[in-house]
Each structure stands twice: as structure tokens, then as C-alpha cells.
């Protein structure tokens, strides 16, 4: 049985993220864990602060559990008698957000982490506030980011964008993606951005070999391929989101050098800042 984890800070958009994720969990028959990471003031450097009283920690925990119960009731009101209803669990712990997400994911067999983005600022105000960059960088499970504009509709097509520079890891990610696509009979569109004017057989060969491996090793009939021509990767992916009738965009978050990340950032992080449809981020290997 698959399990989806929803880290939340109880912000205004959290119910939309839960509703979207709960609909997906019902379709693929996955259980649900709602998690809140309590960031105690003692963890925030302040002059003169030595410790955080135990009674105050208890109040934070009590408030967290109360808010989690409200979200659980919100999902339970959506239960139906004619379809699968996920089991809903709540976890509240104190500590670093990414540590808690990874610990809960490991201890409870989580297969997908689902969080959201606010307004037009996207990743900059992920539902977990200023922990956004850490989450996309350090969460060890696939991460589905839900923007406020995402409509709760049946998922018919998922695009998997790749540069085909790490084909073995891409195949592993596609295997995971199939576990989501198969129960809902969704199409998987493998795509990569091709620079305009490039027609190099050396470039085409790894693409052809990768598609042969997909056909030989992945037992799923609804996988297709399409190259998108564009001088800029982000513009090409934007075009695909706008014109490709895509319901979810999936990408691998490639690790870069410190200076490359500082000045440019990954394509995944850039997409997360403005994408209008859900973005599924696979961790790099």
C-alpha cells in the first residue's frame, strides 16, 4: 500500500494542497499522513535566549495536534461509500522540517511527499516557508509541489522532462512514475528540450538508446516521446505546459556545483517558481 505525506504549516493554501493530494491518493489507493514540523523558538538564534520552557513546548505541540485534527476532519468529510478512502494519520514533531520529512518518510514507508506553493512567488513561499530550498534539495522522496492554480481534475497526462544525461536514474524515476500513472491509466510523455538548429547524430544516439531501454525494461503501454525545440530549457518546458495538455510536469532535481547553483539554480527550482500545474520533483541520485 502506497503512503503519501503532507507536510503543512496550516497556511491558507494548505487545504487546497490536501484536497488535491487526497483526490490523487484515492485514485491510486494510497494512505495519507499529515505532518507538522514544530519549529521551537529555542532553535532560532536570539540574544539572551538560552532555552525554551517545557510547558511552552507542550503548548506548541497541543496547538499543532489540534490543527492537524481539523485538517483530518476536513479530509474525512470528503469520504465516499463507493470508492477507496485513504487511512488518515497525523504526526506532529519538533525539529528541522527536512529532517522530520525524511524521518517520517523512512519510518512509515512514504512513497510521495506533497506540498504546495503560494501565489506568484512559487517556491520562495513554499507552504513550509523559508525551508523551501532545503526541502527541494534534501528531501529523499519524490516531491509533488501543488500551486494554488492547480485544478482538481482527473490526471490524464504526465510529462517527464529529462536531459538524458543519467539514463539509468531516469529509468528508476519512470518506474516510480508508473506506480502513479498505472492505477489512473494516465499517459507518460518523455520529453527533452532540443536547441534550435541542432541536428547531430551523436546527440540523437543516446536518445534512441534510452527509448529502446524504456521499451524493453518498462512494462507500461502508455509511454510516448516528444522533443521540444527551444533555445532555452525553461522556455521550452513552459511551452509544453501551456500547449501540451499536461496535468503534471515531472523532473529530476540534478545537483550542481555550489557556484552554478548560486548564480543559476537548477531547472527544477526555476520551474517551481512559476509553474501553474503540479511539479513532481525526483531527487537526484
Enumerate how many helices there are, as a single number.
9
The beta-strand count equals 10
Main beta-sheet annotation: 10 strands, mixed
Q: Helix/strand-derived class?
A: alpha/beta
Helix coverage percent? 40-55%
Task: Note the beta-strand portion.
Answer: 15-25%
Shape: globular
The neighbouring-strand order within the major sheet is: 3-2-1-4-5-10-9-6-7-8
Mean pLDDT: 81
- CATH topology heading of the largest domain: Rossmann fold
Name of the CATH architecture of the largest domain: 3-Layer(aba) Sandwich
Distance between the termini: 24 Å
**What letter string, H or E per element, gives the SSE order?**
EHEHEHEHEEHEHEHEHHE
Question: What is the CATH class name of the largest domain?
Answer: Alpha Beta
- Segments where pLDDT lies below 50 for 5+ residues? 119-126, 257-263
Characterization of this structure:
With 285 residues, the protein is an alpha/beta fold. The protein has 2 domains: 2-146, Rossmann fold (3-Layer(aba) Sandwich); 157-283, HUPs (Rossmann fold). It is 40% helix and 22% strand. It contains 9 helices and 10 strands. The protein has helices spanning 14-28, 54-76, 97-107, 132-138, 167-184, 201-217, 233-243, 258-263, 267-272; strands at 2-7, 30-38, 88-94, 112-116, 143-146, 157-161, 187-194, 223-229, 248-253, 279-283. Strands 3-2-1-4-5-10-9-6-7-8 form a 10-stranded mixed beta sheet, sandwiched between helices. The protein is globular, with a radius of gyration of 20 Å. Mean pLDDT is 81; it is low at 119-126 and 257-263.
Amino acid at each position: 500500500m502506497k503512503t503519501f505525506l503532507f507536510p503543512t504549516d496550516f497556511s491558507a493554501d494548505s487545504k487546497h494542497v490536501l484536497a488535491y493530494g487526497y483526490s490523487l491518493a484515492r485514485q491510486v489507493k494510497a494512505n495519507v499522513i499529515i505532518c507538522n514540523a514544530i519549529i521551537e523558538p529555542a532553535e532560532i538564534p536570539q540574544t539572551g535566549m538560552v532555552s525554551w520552557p517545557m510547558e511552552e513546548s507542550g503548548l506548541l505541540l497541543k496547538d499543532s495536534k489540534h490543527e492537524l485534527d481539523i485538517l483530518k476532519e476536513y479530509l474525512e468529510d470528503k469520504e465516499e461509500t463507493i470508492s477507496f478512502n485513504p487511512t488518515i494519520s497525523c504526526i506532529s514533531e519538533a525539529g528541522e522540517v527536512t529532517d522530520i520529512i525524511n524521518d517520517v518518510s523512512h519510518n512509515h514507508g512514504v512513497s510521495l511527499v506533497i506540498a504546495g506553493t503560494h501565489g506568484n512567488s512559487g517556491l520562495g513561499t513554499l507552504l513550509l516557508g523559508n525551508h523551501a530550498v532545503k526541502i527541494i534539495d534534501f528531501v529523499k522522496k519524490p516531491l509533488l509541489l501543488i500551486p494554488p492554480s492547480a485544478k482538481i481534475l482527473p490526471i490524464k497526462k504526465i510529462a517527464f522532462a529529462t536531459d538524458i544525461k543519467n539514463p539509468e536514474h531516469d529509468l528508476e524515476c519512470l518506474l516510480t512514475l508508473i506506480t502513479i500513472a498505472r492505477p489512473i491509466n494516465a499517459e507518460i510523455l518523455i520529453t527533452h528540450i532540443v536547441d534550435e538548429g541542432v541536428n547531430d547524430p551523436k546527440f540523437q544516439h543516446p536518445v534512441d538508446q534510452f527509448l529502446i531501454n524504456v521499451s524493453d525494461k518498462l512494462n507500461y503501454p502508455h509511454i510516448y516521446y516528444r522533443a521540444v525545440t527551444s533555445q532555452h530549457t525553461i522556455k521550452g518546458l513552459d511551452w509544453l505546459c501551456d500547449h501540451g495538455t499536461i496535468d503534471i510536469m515531472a523532473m529530476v532535481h540534478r545537483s550542481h556545483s555550489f557556484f552554478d547553483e548560486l548564480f543559476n539554480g537548477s531547472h527544477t527550482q526555476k520551474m517551481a517558481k512559476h509553474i501553474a500545474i503540479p511539479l513532481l520533483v525526483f531527487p537526484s541520485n
